[in-house]
Amino acid sequence: METxxxxxxxxxxxxxxxxxxxxxxxxxxxxxxxxxxxSVIAMIDEEYDVVIEGNDFKKLVTISELIEEIKxxxx
Amino acid sequence: MAILHTxxxxxxxxxxxxxxxxxxxxxLSLLGSxxxxxxxxxVTGIEYRRMVKDTGFCTSDLCFHAAEKLxxxxxxxxxxxxxxxxxxxxxxxxxxxxxxxxxxxxxxxIDCYSMDISLGCSGWVYGLSTISAxxxxxxxxxxxxxxxxxxxxxxxDRDKSTYPLFGDAGTATALEFVEGEDGIKFQLGTDGKGxxxxxxxxxxxxxxxTQSSFEFAEIEQGQYxxxxxxxxxxPSVFTFGITKAPRSVNTLLxxxxxxxxxxxxxxxxxxxxxxxxxxxxxxxxxxxxxPYSLGKYGNTSSASIPLTMISELKKQLEGHTKQIVVCAFxxxxxxxxxxxxxxxxxxxxxxxV
Lengths: 75, 353
Known about the structure:
The complex is a heterodimer. By secondary structure, chain A is mainly alpha-helical. Chain A has a single domain, classed as Orthogonal Bundle (Non-ribosomal Peptide Synthetase Peptidyl Carrier Protein, Chain A), CATH 1.10.1200. In chain A, 57% of the residues lie in helices and 0% in strands. Chain A has four helices and no strands. The two termini of chain A are 14 Å apart. The model of chain A has no long low-confidence stretch (mean pLDDT 90). Chain B has one domain: Thiolase/Chalcone synthase (Peroxisomal Thiolase, Chain A, domain 1, 3-Layer(aba) Sandwich), CATH 3.40.47.10. In chain B, strands 6-5-7-8-2-17 form a six-stranded mixed beta sheet, with helices on both faces. A five-stranded mixed beta sheet of chain B has the order 1-9-16-15-14, with helices on both faces. In chain B, helix 5 packs parallel to helix 6 (273-282). Chain B is globular and about 60 Å long. The chains are: A mainly alpha, B alpha/beta. The A-B interface holds A 34-35, 37-39, 41-42, 45, 51-55, 57-58 and B 39-40, 43-44, 161, 197, 233-240, 242-243, 274-275, 278.
């Protein structure tokens, strides 16, 4: 799931360079802004049928935390 | 559970009024470069917005003009109007209720039932439930539902999380008691846990305005707003909308045994394109059935559903019979869906002032 998620994440933010990894602090990415935030929420809903509420989302820092949150909610 | 079926009601007409001042998001320096502004327009679907800007117009002025136009077009005698409901979160005064001022200004009889309702995005549908319930017993026959907002006045022009999204509009909807009509079916809901997601913190009685209410604070780099201006927590509202709106529509359809195929148009509150498209695809509705006025008017709060019907469906509605489902969601947090028939509804052209 990890590789696939990173792919989808990069696609959503239109990132081509190899800048996204499990330990990436996604809010620090140059492409991250409020519209990107919404696009990622929508992508996660679309792909995993999981909606992470704004306040819970704000607690997540790295890509791997994001993946763990999706897994937790899927379980 | 708030499920409602108000019978013996017919929606006779709808009208809208918008300010003449147009703002173009593509030229808005607040959004950054031309490319960044274009990306904003592409994602949100919001290109132009109408603003009362410096005109001194309030929501009640826009609704007044919409109402005058509709009353004339319907050929209604004003003394026959028994009921006036005004829905807004941008009233003329803290007190009195703006509906009282409108009753007098419109020349409605003093025997007219008049009341304000304070709701935003969900306001037209909630207002429809109230006025149709009042009329459905048949002792009051004709009612006017005036709904709108001038939210641009409450936005900081140095806050890109709110300013480029909103436009101003006022609407009027005319309803009548008609024995035997199937009326309007509703599903309504509330989740006050999210009350801070869209809020103007100061200026009410919880936080009475003080000198510090007017001070601008930097909320994010280069973004400023004071405490009399509205906050919009985009991600929270987004997740709220994409979960609650489809659920509400599905509950409405299932409860009343309505098939999606029977519905000619699904008209949603105009929040932004990304959110609305998400709701549409979750409900598996064809794009042809879902009109948008976002590009022309932005998010017009409580006015958005009637404004979208008038702006986008005027030709399809006038002289025809159509089955409509509407769904509104937002500030509160509050949401409401409704299903009704529009049969030869009167839709005068949008008034500009």
